[in-house]
Design brief:
- There is one protein chain.
- This protein has 343 residues and is α/β, with parallel strands linked by helices.
- The protein has two domains: 2-80, no CATH class; 101-329, 3-Layer(aba) Sandwich (Rossmann fold).
- 43% of the residues lie in helices and 13% in strands.
- The protein is built from 13 helices and eight strands.
- The protein has helices at 2-17, 22-37, 46-51, 55-80, 97-102, 104-107, 113-122, 134-144, 177-188, 222-235, 263-266, 279-282, 288-305; strands at residues 124-128, 148-152, 193-197, 214-217, 239-245, 248-254, 314-319, 324-329.
- Strands 3-2-1-4-5-6-7-8 form an eight-stranded mixed sheet, with helices on both faces.
- Helix 1 (2-17) runs antiparallel to helix 2, helix 2 packs antiparallel against helix 4 and helix 8 runs parallel beside helix 9 (177-188).
- It is globular and about 75 Å long.
- The two termini are 47 Å apart.
């Protein structure tokens, strides 16, 4: 029993100290020690009896663990080699000389190139929320050359926002966030169209989701998240959703029209009051919205250009306090009240 508890202890210590996969090395050394102490000529020692199991038992345990690890490694290898579907033909678009210079680092990327940059220019992306997550999302979408960017937010810039909402400035305190964001985006890239919507997203105003190719939600209240999800499902528009609190954040792409789950498939029930506090209630580390928001923008660029593999069907969870990132699979639910597990 103590021998097995040693593996549990090493795993917990690895999580606490942020060892990553190095805890497996420690576990292998522990297993080798158990094997040595359980050899027949040592099995009568008190410490061998204390650790439990026999030489044959630990050998079988090690072989089973090796099979499981080899299986996981094989799955990851196959996953990485999975062929990526060819993106649709690039739309007809022309670039000015200044734009070609601006987007040169994109154009020389094999996965984006000229066709991908044309898709970015032709894309229409709506960002819900111009706060902590919306700030890096909007700046990077503008910098990347997304042709039309809509931003909806009913709030105004406050001094307490500036610790993390880097798209706004001290001189724009009191200005509606959408107009503050518009000024920053136009200053960064004059070749894009910005559509600011200074209003709250409601069941009535959510209809504008249908005017866009992709939606990114960076709001911090569950009512709005569920509303955005319903609007995206109804319009058949994919949704990139991000969330943060204190030191941790998560990102996923919800797209039931193309086989992925919707937000309600993964979070069917709104958390009880107090279980998922907002940033204003629980606090948030200043760079965390930049990390998660940048991941959201990266997913948007990949989705528009067809580069790589998106987070559809997966959720990325980042713990900034211990600098750990993990990936979990998420699935459609056939009984989902929003998408009904639709394909």
């Amino acid at each position: 029993m103590i021998g097995l508890l040693g593996f549990v202890g090493l795993w917990a210590l690895g999580r606490w100290r942020g060892w990553g996969q190095w805890w497996l090395v420690a576990a292998a050394l522990w297993w080798a020690l158990l094997m040595g102490l359980s050899l027949p000529y040592l099995s009568s020692l008190p410490i061998a009896r204390l650790l439990g199991a026999t030489f044959e038992g630990w050998l079988v345990f090690g072989l089973l663990a090796a099979v499981v690890l080899a299986y996981r490694f094989g799955l990851r290898l196959l996953h990485r080699r999975k062929p990526v579907e060819a993106p649709p033909p690039a739309p007809a678009a022309t670039f000015r000389e200044a734009e070609l210079d601006r987007y040169a680092r994109h154009i020389i990327l094999r996965e984006i190139g000229g066709p991908g940059q044309k898709r970015l220019k032709a894309a229409k992306v709506l960002v819900v929320g111009a706060g902590g997550l919306g700030s890096p999302v909007l700046l990077y979408l503008a910098a990347a050359g997304v042709g039309t960017i809509g931003v909806i937010d009913h709030d105004v810039v406050e001094g307490s926002n500036l610790q993390r909402q880097v798209i706004h400035t001290d001189g724009r305190i009191g200005m509606p966030k959408v107009f503050s964001a518009e000024a920053a985006m136009r200053a960064l890239n004059p070749f894009i169209e910005v559509r600011p919507y200074h209003r709250r997203l409601t069941a009535e105003t959510a209809a504008l989701v249908g005017e866009y190719d992709l939606v990114l939600d960076g709001t911090d209240d569950f009512d709005t998240r569920y509303l955005v999800n319903r609007a995206c499902v109804a319009a058949g528009v994919p949704l990139i959703s991000g969330a943060i609190t204190q030191w941790e954040g998560q990102v996923s792409l919800f797209d039931p029209a193309r086989g992925a789950p919707c937000y309600a498939c993964v979070f069917p029930v709104k958390p009880a009051a107090g279980l998922a506090p907002t940033c204003a209630e629980a606090g948030v580390a200043a760079p965390l919205p930049g990390i998660i928001g940048s991941l959201m923008a990266m997913e948007a660029v990949k989705w528009v250009t067809g580069a790589g593999e998106t987070l559809a069907g997966r959720m990325l969870i980042h713990d900034a306090l211990y600098m750990e990132t993990r990936m979990i699979g998420v699935k459609k639910q056939a009984d989902c009240p929003v998408c009904g597990g639709a394909h």
